[in-house]
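Ligand-bound model needed. methionine sulfoxide.
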Amino acid sequence: MAEQLIIDTSANKATKYQTLIPQIEALTHGEADVVANLSNIAAALRQSMNFFWVGFYIVKNNAALADRQELVLGPFQGPIACTRIGFGKGVCGACWKEKKVMLVPDVEAFPGHIACSSDSKSEIVLPAFKNNEVALVLDVDSDQLNDFDSTDEKYLLQVMRMIEQFI
Ligand code: SME
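Prediction:
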């Protein structure tokens, strides 16, 4: 497909996701390279939904820590972010540990939240699975309080199921 997204920026959130998701599918279809696909997904989400920060943290072994697993920063769009997150730490680590979507309306109220940017006010983190284990998480941050809801969860989960096809 052409490397251009068609999104009506005046449309409501659900309509934007509905227009975006088939385009993400087309962008990644037939491409097996994980970094390339995650990079384009991060860019497509940020560009079309105007998120403050969107990116992936990938479960990796750390040889320096006797191969203990950590979340390591992957492709993202937005300000620089923390590189490594431990199991159960912050919202991303909680998503990994609990294997479920974390919807955080106010990051200040989330115990252990990791503040990569003081501008980040609310956040949604979703897991992608490989062999029933979390392989990576998608983290989306907003500079507005209470910016994510079940509509974001519904459509971002569709993106996670797409990601599971190529990881
Ligand atoms: N806030 C996240 C850390 C990642 S940054 O927001 C990009 C957390 O608590 O896990």
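Residues 53, 81-82, 85, 90-92, 113-114, 116, 120, 123, 139, 141 surround methionine sulfoxide (CB under 6 Å).
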